[in-house]
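Q: How do we represent a protein-ligand complex in a form that can be generated token by token?
A: Start from the inputs.
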Amino acid sequence: MEHEIHGSSERSEGGREAKQVKVATRVARMEISMPKVLRATRAHQALEGCAEALRSDDCGSLYLKSFRSEKISCFWSHSWHGGPWMKIMTLLVHYNGRAAVLFSLCFSLISMVLFSLGILPGIVRAPRSPDWKWSSWSLISGFVVAVVVLLLWRPREPVFLDRICINKNNMEEKKASIFSLGGILKRSEKMMVLWDPTWSTRLWCLFELSAFLKSRGSSEAKLLIRPTFLGPCSMILFSGICFVMLPVTTISFNPSWWPFGSLLPALGALLFLFIGGYVMVGALRAYFRSLETLQERLQNISFDDCRCACCDLGHRLEGVDLLCDREIVKECVSIWFGSPEAFEDCIRSELLAAVTWRLKQDVFTRHWSLSVTIPVFWGFLDLAASFAIIHEYEEALSFIIEGLVLWLLCGPILLDFMTWLAFRYCRRASSIRREICTNLSLLLVASGGFLVILVSYILCQGFLNERIWYATAFFGGPWCIIAVLQFLYKVSHRSHRSNSFSLRSS
Ligand SMILES: [Zn+2]
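Then emit the structure tokens for the protein with zinc ion bound:
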């Protein structure tokens, strides 16, 4: 957020200081100075037109998208100097991700049923059985629906976004909005920080954070910190897994060449895993690197080192003297926390620990990994449909169960392993060549996990080919045990940090 408080007619230094203190005292009261400035907009309206509000500089008509609201569900705090597309992708994943997963799952199930009933056409994959048509509808429809819902879903949560909710065309109203920022934050249920490396260097972003934490008092603050790299990283992982599943549902093979003939789609998946997996490893490492930067920036947070427009302009614009935002903000923070240094210390000691722990542990939740790895299940729905159409219902059902095992148990374990590797070795290498080598080595290690899953699957199928249910049980059983053990390990190692925390104020 970037604001500037114009219009001090005071030329003398002392007069200006007195005015700054007066303004700070007014802002620090956290009151709404004009009822009509307490406004919100629906999240989907803020994301309309490819999130025009977050991209374009022309914000004349955006104000019309806001409405008066007594309560704001979420206050979006972000820096105007960060990349807009990363923020937009992160918001889309945050608000529309769940709906995208649910709708795509429904559509892939419907596609499976329609194909099984012979309504949808299929492709020939086994050249010796040209009449046997195979489905890849579930994977394709799932992917298309997920993308469409992600882009077009309309979340209705009332949010505060400065560019929409502050009337920039009316100077008096704009001024009242800035004076009321503390009050607006006080009336916001939660605050979402769209974090990028520029965020902690902007004065007004720090002001928003301090006002929000102060307004919660001793009660716990619901602060969501979302590094903007999370959106693109999730999208890359999801698309990468779709890409890996593509050969499973499309590559031609010959079942009579068993076992090599039926191995072809799996080998194709392995090849695609190398391409898709490389990108995924790179994305995950970049995410953890961005967390390290966040940690570093919060560690060195300082009001004196922050940038604000007024100081950049030398406190003079078009012949009018400007008040110094920095001085006003520091004065406010002194009223709330005792001194700017006390607030900075609180950030370093309490917020830093809570935030970094949560961004490592809580972002990659079970819910997140199931959303990202759902294309694995779609691929198996296609295999099930391809057997159901030739009336091999037992085989079809076993594919559905195996798909569930791979999606619900194996996928998250493998992804956890990959995330752990990426976190452990996220440091940027000294040269591009070394960077590529690091990505490839990590991918190779992660592929080891994939190979274990693949080999155990093929062995069960190979040895128990005639007894489908034994094969499914022998494959699924050990993974169930591993998943339970992993769950117990996670529960026992989880500290009792909650989703919100409080910051002591003096
Ligand atoms: Zn200044």
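The CA atoms of residues 229 and 287 lie 6 Å apart. The pocket of zinc ion is lined by residues 308, 310-311, 315, 324-326 (CB under 6 Å).
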